[in-house]
Structures are given as C-alpha cells and as structure tokens.
Amino acid sequence: MTQPTLIRRVPETLRTALTLAATGVPVLPLRAGKVPFGNCRVCAGNACGGRPNMKTPGPCDCPGVCHAWAAATTDPAVIDSREWAAAWRRAVCVGYHPGGAGLTVVDLDDAAAVDWARTVLPATRTVETTRGEHWIYRGVMTSRNAVRPGVDIKSTMSYARYLGPGTGPLTALPDTVRALAARTPAPARPAPADAVPASVGGDCPHRTPAYLERGITMAEQQITEASSAVHATVYRTFLAVLSRHGRCGCLTDTHVNRLFTAAQAKGERARHCVDAWTNARTMLGL
Are 241 and 259 in contact (CB under 8 A)? Predict the structure, then answer.
C-alpha cells in the first residue's frame, strides 16, 4: 500500500523571507511586538562577542536567530534551517536589514511626519505603514532614531519591518536625509538638584577600551536578565550608563545601538528606547 505523501506547511512569513533573500535583501523573523527574537543562552549578554560589535550583517557562530539585525541573512539554508524553524512558526512578520541591502529607510511615524517629508524630501519608493509611511532610498548611512518628531532613519546596524514592495522608483539617498542624522552638540546645561551625580569629571577616565566595554556589557546583561518591570529596568540602566560615561564623549552610536538592541530584544519599542534615553539625559542635565 502506498504511503501518503506528507506535505510540509511553510509559514507565509518564511515564504516572504525566502523571496526577499533571493533578491539580495537580508531577512530575519520578528516576533510579537515587531521586535527580534532574544538571544539564545550562549549568546545572552553578548557573551559570544556577536555581530552587534561588527560592521557587517550576518549571524554569529550560533545557528539560531541571535543578535537582532545582525542575524539577517540572504542564505536560504540558514533561513529555512531547523534552528530557525521555531522562530518562523512564532513570527508575526518579516524584518530586513536595509543597510545590508544597500538601502536607507526613512520611517515616518505619523501623518505630520509624512506631510513634512512630502515638503522637504525628494520623492522615492514609499510603503504604507500602520500610521505613516516608509520612504526607501538607494544608499547606505548611519541609522539614527528621532532625528525629528516622528522620524527615524534605519540603514546600517538596524532593521525595518517588511510591509510590501511599495510604489515608485528608488531614488539615490540625498544629502537632505544624511543631514538629518548629523548631530549638533547641545550646549551643556546644569544638572537638576535631584539628578543622579555623574561619576566622571572633565578628564576622560576611559584610558583603556576595556573599561567602557565592561560597562556596556554589564548594562546589556542587566537588561537581558530582567524578568519583570522591563520599562523601569531599561530606564535605570540607561541612567546608570549615562551617569558614568555620558559627560566625556566616549559613548558612540555603536554603544547606544547595543543598548537599544538589548532593550528591543526584551520587547521594548524603538520609540520607548529613544524616550528612555532622552529622559535619562534630561535627568542628568546632558
């Protein structure tokens, strides 16, 4: 008697991911909350020295979906692997690494931001989101959140949610968008009387990179190991990092992205991370 043929059910998210990967777009599964899956135990607290410290996309030696944006890949053998299968079954949507695909996404979070973009930015491919639009440009730049009200920039070392192919041709990344991410140093303000005191003065105490690295690693671990009150833990951790390292100019975008990645892996939205970081800076008078 002929045995019935078993038909494998492929999640729609996996189908979409494989299609995107075939066009050269690095992809990863996103769980509820539209955030990456948390690191495995081996990679927890970035103990493996994984990809967020590096400049190129791709997984660490762990075969699982670790290190958020850095797990994004175009390799179908990895995407459709046994190690990723459980993540695809739980995934609510597909994420991708814009910088790895040579793209920059201007994430317009509301109608006001869209109106601003239509006035200021050159037209390009657009994709509708729940509340606004993604404007996608051809070219790569540094990612940065909250460059203006309701506007985030997602390119290198970041991920965006795939919401469809969009409409319109791709336009080359303009200087107008690059200028949004350029930071202008803010004038120093006196700390409030009840602020947590900074532990560093005018001279930089971080003579060796290991000192700052240990502090960032411990902060990532504190966020990752939070079992409750994640919002409060993220804020307290940001406050502690800034109180020790926020006045001497040693913190870089890479350090901040590592903290944001750890927070988002615990379910925090990117907007919440920006708000917590801004509130901590305000508390310290930075």
Answer: yes
- Note the pTM of the prediction, 2 decimals: 0.63
- pLDDT tens per residue, range 146-158: 888 889 999 988 9
Domain boundaries, the chain: 12-95, 99-180, 209-284
Residues ≥6 apart with Cβ < 8 Å to 78: 59, 63, 84
Q: Which helix (H) or strand (E) holds 230?
A: helix 230-245
Residues 6+ apart with CB under 8 A from 29: 13, 17, 36, 37, 65, 84, 87, 88, 90, 91, 94, 95
- Which one is predicted more confidently, 182 or 125? 125
Is residue 46 scored above 80 in pLDDT?
Answer: no
Q: What ranges in 63-144 are assigned the alpha helix state H?
A: 76-79, 82-90, 111-120
